[in-house]
Fold:
Amino acid sequence: MSVQIDEIDTKLIALLRRDARMPVAELARRLDLARTTVQTRIDRLLEKGVIAGFTLRSGDALAAPIRATALVSIAPRTGPAVLSRLQSLPNVEAVFTVSGRVDLVVEISARTTRDLDQTLDDIAEAKGVQSSESFIHLTTKIDRRG
Structure:
């Protein structure tokens, strides 16, 4: 059974991933929707198995996201602007500053290759980004994150 997930659902899921305990009223405010609309969407996502619990564990409908890592080099003094842009991209799950030849490691999770491609384009086009290199995750061999 295929579940249709629109852009609002994607934003809702991203907010819940950041804070699964966020009140529905706050979710509604951030999404600029009525509280009842947000609650109805959460109920539907639960019923269809997209949300399997509120730690937020993705259900079968989102079981196999395409995961990638982008190595990003930025221009001096552009860190806050680049981070702000990355924060606005719903497929960006985590950003780490690192030592070495790049400045940032960006973890990405997308539902489709098209979504992944768009996210990588958005990262590369962000003001202050000098270069980026991406790696698509193929198989998880060890995962101790729980």
Notes: The radius of gyration is 16 Å. The chain has five helices and six strands. The beta strands are 51-53, 57-58, 66-74, 92-97, 104-110, 129-136.
